[in-house]
Amino acid sequence: MRKTRFASAAAAAALAAGSLLALGQAASAAPQDVPPGGEHLPESVVLPTGDRITLLPNGTAGIEPAPGREGTSFLTPPSPSGDLVVVPTDRVAAITAGDEDPRRYNVSELLRGDHTDAAALTESELDQRAYAGLVPDTFPATTLAADDLRKFHLDLRTRAGKAPDGAWVLWAARDGSDFGSIEIDENGGASEALAPGDYVIVTGFWNDATDTRRGETTIGMTPVTVTDDDVTELLVEAADARPVSVEVEQSDAALLNAAFYMGAESADANLGYGTYLGPNDDAFLLPEPDLPEFERSFIYQPVLASPEGAADPYVYNLAFHDASGYPADTAFAPADDDLAVLAADYRDLGTPVDGQTCGYGDLTEGQIGMGYCRLVDTPVPSQRTMYYTADPEITWDNGLRAGLRDADGEMTDGFVASYEESFEPGPTARTIPNGGLSSGPVDATRGTDSGTEFFFAGTPVGGANDESLQLIGALGGYELTRDGELLASADGYDFYWDSAFTELPAGDAGRYTFTTELAQAPTTVDFGTSVSSSWSFDSESMPEGEFDRLAFPYVVLAADDLAGGYGDRRACQEVTLEMRTDEYGPVAHAEDMTFEVSYDDGATWKAVDLDRDGDTATAELRHPRKAKWVSIRTTALADNGTEVTNTVIRAYGLK
């Protein structure tokens, strides 16, 4: 039997983190074909300040300020390495002065090392790369002789005409040929040796909020030409910037935070700057730069909420985007009638627990934002009114995580549910989660790296009833066989945090069967008391350095009447089955599907007639009068020859 292990969540989460920011611009959230991992896996890390950064399955990053630090703002400096770096602005000065280590704020690198407490790490456990300011020093080294360089001097001034508390500044050649960072001194100035030419100076500078003043953050881009003169000077003044603000109809609404971003993209360069403002910070935007070769973008995403303990709680999730430049008016005041007003009913799946919601809105045709959301405490069950920007060009990715946490704050038992929607103005309603277990998003890969052939797969326990639902704390085991011969097996497999990973014999090929079996369901969840899945598929050895995503089909169930995992036993229930494959892998289509139900926890089964049309099939269920639970068994044969069988005991309940 070959060596078997689990791919940790940290590896997968770090890959996802690396895709969030590239020189300050949000990049594609599509996963990379790099072993090991499964991009459905989340992870979180606590910064030295106690603030927690959580990577969620939908690709967003949730920021959770530590108790007593709710007013903190956060800088997300662009990193040429692609790493996700999150630094509270009140720590930037200490890092710049050398009193604090920037490596403890590199979320990607911390998670790659499977670290969850940045303050607890020893020197040997930290990133061994050199850092330039807040990020790994992967900036290109200049190849020009000193005599070919000229002095560029920059001064930054706040709205009061003084040096800012902190700043993060980048310079970039307009043709995309070179870039680097500029370290601002305590007087708000800096000098850099640059070759004569045309540049864009990307600036973000701020004063932190105190007990006696509000904070202010100013961001912008300024084109500048470095001449052959001895010195080229540039003064950037916040007094030239216009306020960016929001006002809503609910008079007692309080700002929780706001994501604030501006970007510019050309054929040769992607530039941007983003920050995550606290409730006591004011935002200011410098005049739109004259950069005709760049497509400029703007984002302001505030979150406002009712006072704590309000009898009728509400949250505003607003998104003001412009993909063609800066908006003419940055004093945003949406009327409630122009927003979607969602009556949100947050349900538990068996046990009342604490939870958090996350709402992130971005362009439907392509993300331009930073991918950050504010985690709002949300006990389940509970109800709340949610106000959303209603615009067909904005798609909201809304999530709920609920369950029990360990001493480190990691969620160990519960569930995570999310859904995407472009809202229309007016009242609407939704239960979260809808519930109904069938299968979570399955991904599988085979490859060869450094002479070692391997197979790995992520198979979360969950469902997809107009949502993505995954259980946290589902444990079990798996087996991999080839032509009847056992190649690998393991127990203690965490269906949420782990991906199954096993080495394969060199040159191995044939008909494989991969099976998973749930041994322990989450204690806070009444559904999915037993879950088993099996895939039979053909596979061949991969050349060195190549990785192949396998088309592993899985079947999901949807029913409009399910809410919080329960349906109406008296109704004639219409269900829809759909065979899917990993959206980032090869496509496979259904050649056949079957469906069975059980009302006695799998002791007996009844075949259900399907009306199949391609990859989807519909059926009608008339439940026994005294039935309490519906268990399901589905099979599918894909056109690539792969067969899948999935059995879920207590997929949903009846009332």
UniProtKB/TrEMBL annotation:
- Keywords in alphabetical order, please: Signal
- Which residues belong to the signal peptide in this entry? 1-22
Q: What is this protein called?
A: Uncharacterized protein
